[in-house]
Amino acid sequence: MSDGYPFVSIQVVWDDAAQSMIRMIIEGSWTWEAMQDARSEVGVLLDMVPHEVTILLDLLKSRGLPNGYMWQFRRLNMASHPNAGPTVVITEDGLVISLAQMLNKLDCDKPDRRGVYTAPTLEDAQALARSLRAGAET
């Protein structure tokens, strides 16, 4: 149910010329089916490069999480792809921040764990992604 607002598709774009970050941009209401379609698009972009890529999930203009978020939130992590790096969720929503923190605690012992982080702005997310990449390269 859209509560009178149209559902939107999720835009997937390279966030930088080096193709080290992919941004998923969500504005308005969205569904988990739209997220699954966007994840498929991200997979196509990840297949195009030979290196790790940080996923930026931009929820700043989103109308929040759709129903079923407790069961679906873990699927936001793209760690199943070999080129997927950490996921940085761009949000100021306290629920989403708490879910990301909980996810990190639940997944902390997994060997393929890449991490889910949060940042309040796109600029902060990009800086965090660069910092995580620099830390991984040392």
Summed up, what is this model?
By secondary structure, this protein is an alpha/beta fold.
End-to-end distance, in Å?
47 Å
Output mean pLDDT: 83
Tell me the series of helices and strands, N- to C-terminal: EEHEHEHEH
Percent helix: 25-40%
What form results from the Cα inertia axes? globular
> What characterizes the major β-sheet?
5 strands, mixed
Q: Spans with pLDDT under 50 lasting ≥5 residues?
A: 1-5
Discrete helix count: 4
How large is the share of residues in beta strands?
15-25%
Radius of gyration: 14 Å
The total beta strand count reads: 5
Largest sheet, spatial ordering of strands = 1-2-3-4-5
Class derived from helix and strand content: alpha/beta
How does this structure look, described?
The protein is α/β, with parallel strands linked by helices. The protein is built from four helices and five strands. It has helices at 32-47, 69-72, 94-106, 122-137; strands at residues 11-14, 21-28, 53-62, 84-90, 116-119. It has a five-stranded mixed β-sheet, sandwiched between helices. The longest helix is centred in the first third of the chain and has 16 residues, at 32-47. The N and C termini lie far apart (47 Å). The model is unreliable at 1-5 (pLDDT under 50).
SSE blueprint:
Blueprint: E1 11-14, E2 21-28, H1 32-47, E3 53-62, H2 69-72, E4 84-90, H3 94-106, E5 116-119, H4 122-137
Primary descriptors:
single chain, 138 residues, alpha/beta, five-stranded mixed sheet, 4 helices, globular, disordered N terminus
